[in-house]
Amino acid sequence: MQDGFLPLQVLCHQHQSSRFIFIKQHRSEAVGQAADHCILFVTGVPRSHPDPQEGLKAAFSCLGPIESVTLHPAKVSAVVCIAEAEAWTKLQQAAAADAVLDLSLPEGKQNGVRGWVEEHKQKFVSTAKLRQQLDDWMADHEAKEAAEKAVDQSNDGWTVVRRKGGRKKTTDAAGTAVGSVAAAAVEARMKANKEPRVLENFYKFQQRNKRRSDIMELQEQFERDKRKISELKAARRFKPS
Amino acid sequence: MQAILAISEGARFSDRQASELLQELKDSSRSADTIEAAFARLAKALRRLPERKITAEEAAELVQALGLTCQPPLHFLPPEEARILGGPAAGLTTTSGRATDVAICIPKGSLYHKDQLNDHYTHRRAVYLGVAAAALKRHKWVLSQEWTFLRGTDRKPTLVVKCGDASTPTASTTFNLIPVISAESFPAARLAPQRNNLRPKLASNAAPGREYPATPHYNNELCWDMWPACDQAQLQSQLQAFPGLSDCILLLKAWAQYHGLCSGPGALSGWLLACFAGRIASAGGLVTGTTPLQMLKAILLRLSRSSTPFLGDQSIAAPATANASAPDVQTFVSAFECVFLDYSGHVNFAAGLSGSKAKLAQTAAKRTVALLNNTVEPDAAFDGALLTQLPPGSAFDCWWHVTIEGNSGSKEDYKDLAVWREVERSVQSIAERALGARASLVHVFPRALLQLAALDKGSVQPASHSILVAAQMDPEHAGSLVDIGPDPNSPQAADFRAFWGDKAELRRFQDGRILEAVAWQVSPAERHMIPDHVLQYALTKHLGSADVSVRGCAGLLDRALATAEFPLERQMAAQRQLQEATDLLAKQLRSLPLALVITAVQPRSPAARRTAAFPPEAHPLAGAPAEACAHVLKVPRCLQPVELLVQLEGSGRWPKHPEAYHKTKAALGLQIADELASGFGLRSSATEDFVDVFAGGFAFRFSLHSARDDAILKEQQRLAPQAAAQSAHAVNLRSLKHHALIAAAVDVRPALATTIRLLVRWLGAHLLSNHITQEAAELLATRAFFGPSPLPVPGSPLAGFMRVLHLISHHPWKLRPLIVDPADAMTAASVAQAQQLFDTARAEKRAAPMALVTAHDLVAEQWTSTTQPSAAVLRRLVALAKSSLSALQAHVFDGEHSQEEVFAKVFCAPFMDFDILVTLHPDSVPGSSRALSKAPMQGHLSSRGGKRDRDEAAGANGHADANGKAKSGRTVLTHIPQGVLDKHGHAKAQRELLTTLVDAPWACDGIHRR
Predict the structure, then answer these.
(1) Does the structure show a pLDDT above 80 at B91?
(2) What is the tens place of the pLDDT at every residue in B334-369?
(3) What is the ipTM of this complex?
(4) What domains, with CATH codes, occur in chain B?
(5) Which of its termini does chain B have fewer beta carbons within 10 Å around, N or C?
(6) Using a CB-CB distance cutoff of 8 angstroms, which residues of chain A are in contact with residue B958?
(7) How many helices (H) and strands (E) does chain B have?
(8) Chain B residues closer than 8 Å to A237 by CB
(9) What is the DSSP letter of B387?
């Protein structure tokens, strides 16, 4: 026992192994502690426990009535408040006697490596089951779509027809390439898409603006370079070894 | 025009970087005034040395360490003059840490007639310096003295004197005293390279009328003392004519130093480089007004275009202004491997430079020019060219330490070169001949001589017992099983047989030719060791009766890739089987009678691109043929699936609703699974996202893809970019692109796949595999093979691994993302955009600490993130890479430590650095037997804090075996026990096989949450 933590062995039925949880009594002088209560910090709660709050409640109920169990968001530590002043003493006695606490898990749930293996196996369902799931989903989906269509049609029996977009077909149903693009047509299209040439330095003010922007660009580049050089110097890249 | 603009933009910034570098180089140099003041005091002391007569016995005792056999007496006269030599004398800045060369001129009165013969001058020179050293030692301002050897030549001892005040030793100045003589001391004609000046002592060898071999190196060293500063005036005039030349030479010296070209004997000296730059300037190779960096580029370009054996070309290396009495240039060409004459025409400055070293410098210059002209990544290129210190042997792929016992050589006759230099030259020529087409360049590193505190004790010998041979390998031929020789009837056949001896044999080749050949019988997994066997055989055969041992490094890291249960041979077989199984499955899939035709089956798994740490092994329960898994003793329970992407033909009948489309695809997957089972008897299981198939002994996981996926992804990207990036199709596409990138790179560079495997193993050994993903490791290694670098592409996995470690430890992660572009798909604009995105993210504190940019991921978010790896993990990674690299370099270059020690240093995690160790039970971790770092036993760690004590005391993993029930309660993931197999049969056991659960991210998951 170190730093006031009391190791207590807990048993997990399903995989017949035990582990330790660590318990410490809360002693706060500032707040003061009610004489008829015992507040315990518990850490080392099995991470994969499906309902650690209930599990802890059940496990510590032998010490007295449980007022509250507050779990840390990490779900591996908790604060247990017991309405029994002697709970800590009882716990110490139990630990001294090598008692094993029963931290029961629901049936069928595994912990530790076996839990991971089970979790992994759960990903694979049988082919028939998966097919059934897919068929069910598709049936639902189709029913939903049919219902939507029916709602549409119920509006005076009119169906809104929308234009179908899509690219020009280049293969037929058998997968054979059909149609072709003439080189001249492509060139003509490219010519048509070519941006019109704009003279940027036709007017004097354009030339002036361009000069100004070039200088500003150069100044910015210079500042960037200076910053880079100073960073390289700070990183001692220029230091001869 | 755009390219020119890009060059000028990049060049502008490079020039700024160059000027910053120059500033740093100048800051670190000492001021000329300090040197002048110290030199004046030294010169005064030298002038006041008293005249003395040194007897033969006294002289012999003074220079005992040189082991010279003749002991002529000496009439010691104070030096005629003392002057500074080399760069500082010509007005160049001296770099820090270098001693200033000082010439002390031995008066003619101290020399005798015909002293040029039989090392008489050499001995008298050493004795003269010995007397001067003894006299200088008495001065208080002489802090220390040490004897070194100029250019690694045992005939040229020099005295290194540290001058200064004892109270301020940091402000001291170091001088290297070099005795020289006047140009008239000996007849110049008798010192031409083709002349002999070392006659045999023994009567049997000294037969009258016998033609003695030329002594070019001996003669050259004498000439060097007669004309020590011939080029000084010319260099000074060039420095005045070209204001930036002095800075350029400083950059040139820094370049040579960073590339390991100017360290040790037989190196490019600073003076040689300065003269080379001066000659190019005087030959009109430089333009006034250009920046030092531009000048450097011009000089390196000339160096890279050298015409052997001249450094540069003949007009540079042997100028026409030479003295008329000087020997013919051709005599130098026939006597030396490399030629660069001084202005007098008598001295070859490049006499000690070997041909391989010159080629190395030439290649380095060429690559540096290419780097400085790089417009895509100018910053990284400049970094590689002028800011990165490379270890001397890093340009090579294979290294061998050759130790020769019992061949100390005979000292009965005078020799042009020292015994050890002759041995080094023999090793060089034998290694070049033996390795032949396997190596593109073989280089023997000349050994430095031991520094001596005094010449009256000890002996002159190389600092290292072993000779370092290094080679740049040709990946195509390096592992050839047969060395093909000439036709048995050709004149070269006798020579071939003489070289290879009993190993040579006649072989009939597939094309019907019968040729001389040498075959090397090794297993396929040991082909990378063939160069070691070749060298061992050839050196043992040709180095006389000497006991030769060759220690190669090719197999140094093999242990990281092979285990006793899964050796390299079986891994190669497994890789082959996997390829066959993949091809067969793809064929079977394409032949299925489906509503939509399968157009392509594309693998996207590390195992398929040969970069997985271990290839998957054929599994007896996954349909492997019996002979493929005959060696399997324990049937593994977990299989790593090989991921495939099955491309379906386009169709307009797919549902428009994304979820309906997904479900339809799942139904099609189910149909494929059924068809595979009914048609080919393959067991498969399907989920909504993928289908797992066991085929040919391997597990394959494929997901379906059609053109509709792209349309859905585009729509998702428009509506919710964040969610779209995480969608299954985006992930599939990403991994497919990554696979294509890496697979292509692996095909082009043969050593890359093994390098990646080594890196993955190294990351795993240092417990970093959950921080650096497999893909990130692949990108890191790919960059080392394809990025702009001053070094050639690594030709061996060891060289590649060291290059990756160098990259990790030297890349400025805080300043730049790492651009990985093996396909040259990125332009300067895209690199600049990636840099801008990185800068923006950094300013907003959301940049990934390790940013890996590819052509299809400019944001660097696919394989790394702000938390994976975190900044702290990256710092640790860099530190580990540095320490591993230094351990490897110490072993490979300096021959330190045994292979086991090096392996332990590189591949064992320093557990002392951790506060908490969670020890997992080996049975619960698939592949636990392959772990390189074994967790230390409890109590082996010294405590650093209470936290560790607490965890160790309480059982760090929080689990405890409960009263003997633990064993039965434990989940065994490593293998299926034989008892279970016997009891339930293979069919039932097959259902217990687990795919994907091979890695153990789940083990870390819980800890991360805490």
Answers:
(1) no
(2) 999 999 998 888 899 999 889 999 999 999 999 999
(3) 0.70
(4) 1-29+230-386 (1.10.1410.10), 31-201+213-228 (3.30.460.10), 398-449+461-481+520-554 (3.30.70.3020), 562-748 (3.30.460.10), 750-909 (1.10.1410), 912-1009 (no CATH)
(5) N
(6) 19-20, 44
(7) 33, 26
(8) 383, 387, 812
(9) I
